[in-house]
């Protein structure tokens, strides 16, 4: 096991740790060895907290030895996108505008991870200030896809995608405002879940869009995503958008399968213009789900063509509002692509922003009644394309990456990406499943059933 500890799932490692057959320090050292060996090529981390992680691992080992095992994250190495505050580390948002001031407090997500016993290895690269879908960043450099380091990971949680896929950590915490967990999950061959809006606290997380920001994990299996999500979910009075709904034990229904579940497949918009290999993999995934007992039906997504304009009219003005001082005082320190998007945000009339918020309310009710009134889940390809070369990615790449994901940010419903195939060039393809508000359990259950019926998630990049 010494040679492959970094490829264990969280669930597997937890069982070994609980039986004292594996030490948290062994896991931390295995991950740090991978970081040392590979991160020069992948550029996944911004800050590595090696000494702090080893201290925490020794403490976890002592707690477990004294009968204080606290659950499946105890002693598990994780890392967080560098817009979560991590006490003792700088929060840079992968941007010049934030400098290297050390965070004095943890974000609520960081705090909950530590409370569950997780070991924080460090902070992860991203598309600058989380405003981009490719992960290309001229300041920190792009995180590189472990399946082909000349290709993008997707963003904005780019470092999380690279780090988890390459075995540098067991889970990467990401954020998702228009697809930024699910896109790197799809392009890097991972499970990545965006929970319901309000399910996970954003306190201590650098905002991009108050109305659309979500936080969630990227992992190498759906079971691992369920473990992490349960640890971080739940009401936080420090986040005004935090919901008071109780958090279920996601593991309790994970093995219930998909038999009898009604899965809707959009008959327009979501598949329009998808690459042939992506479309073929998606159709094969639908056949597999149907073979497992799911009931498939097509539906017409309400107001689909209006959704991209609405999400832009909310996200971009809110992003500009938060970063207004930097845009006014030192815009030259912001990357050109991000600065362009912030300038667009500044130009939106207030009436258009308010109209988009009102449209969102109407859209939610339309989907609640006309879509989720008759089905349990929606299935789409996660992205319209697989990973593209870093040097060749442009605005059209961004649109192809976010088209299928950002509707579920606007709706606020839970959505997961899981691997559903590979291109002929060996690049991962993702299947997206979205469910009703606060029904992450069904989303995870269906994704787990599909994952167990295939072997896509068990393949490893050729590093």
Describe it for me?
This protein has 463 residues and is α/β, with parallel strands linked by helices. The protein has a single domain, classed as Amidase signature (AS) domain (Amidase signature (AS) enzymes, Alpha-Beta Complex), CATH 3.90.1300.10. 38% of the residues lie in helices and 15% in strands. The strands form 2 sheets. An 11-stranded mixed β-sheet has the order 1-3-2-6-8-7-12-13-11-9-10, with helices on both faces. β9, α8 (276-291) and β10 form a beta-alpha-beta unit. α2 runs antiparallel to α3, α9 crosses α11 and α9 (307-322) packs across α12 (350-370). The relative contact order is 0.13. The mean pLDDT is 98.
Q: Helicity level, as a percent range?
A: 25-40%
Rounded average pLDDT: 98
In whole angstroms, the N-to-C terminal distance is 19 Å
Strand content: 5-15%
Low-confidence stretches: none
Number of domains: 1
Bulk shape = globular
Output the CATH class name: Alpha Beta
Order of helices and strands: HHEHEHEEEHEHEEHEHEHHHHEHHEEH
Helix/strand-derived category reads: alpha/beta
> Rg to the nearest angstrom?
20 Å
CATH topology: Amidase signature (AS) enzymes
